[in-house]
Specification:
- The protein is mainly α and about 90 residues long.
- The protein has 5 helices and no strands.
- Helix 1 packs antiparallel against helix 2.
- The protein has one domain.
- The longest helix is centred in the C-terminal third of the chain and has 22 residues.
């Protein structure tokens, strides 16, 4: 179980697509839950948001400032829709 927690804490989005990143995180969270641990929604959200880069701060800051206001599916949807905006911004800088 300690290994799963370590993987959850250290897995970063990096250059992965948001959908790949979320799938990896959710897989690790599922394994953590299946190990018999109680995993709270806030823990899941923290694991996902903790691996994001600074370009996601526009979403991370409001989500973490208002705990419980967003469900995990809502957060995932926000992250998935924010990714193309980041990509567009990066391509316009090139």
């Amino acid at each position: 179980m300690m290994q799963l927690k370590l993987q959850l804490q250290t897995l970063k989005k990096g250059n992965s697509s948001m959908s790949d990143y979320l799938m990896k995180k959710e897989s690790l969270i599922d394994a953590w839950m299946y190990s018999g641990s109680v995993v709270f929604e806030d823990d899941k959200v923290g694991c996902i948001l903790g691996g994001l880069g600074l370009e996601y701060d526009a979403l991370v800051i409001p989500i973490t400032s208002m705990p419980g206001c967003y469900s995990l599916p809502e957060i995932n949807a926000l992250l998935l829709t924010h990714e193309p905006r980041i990509d567009q911004h990066h391509s316009s800088e090139s």
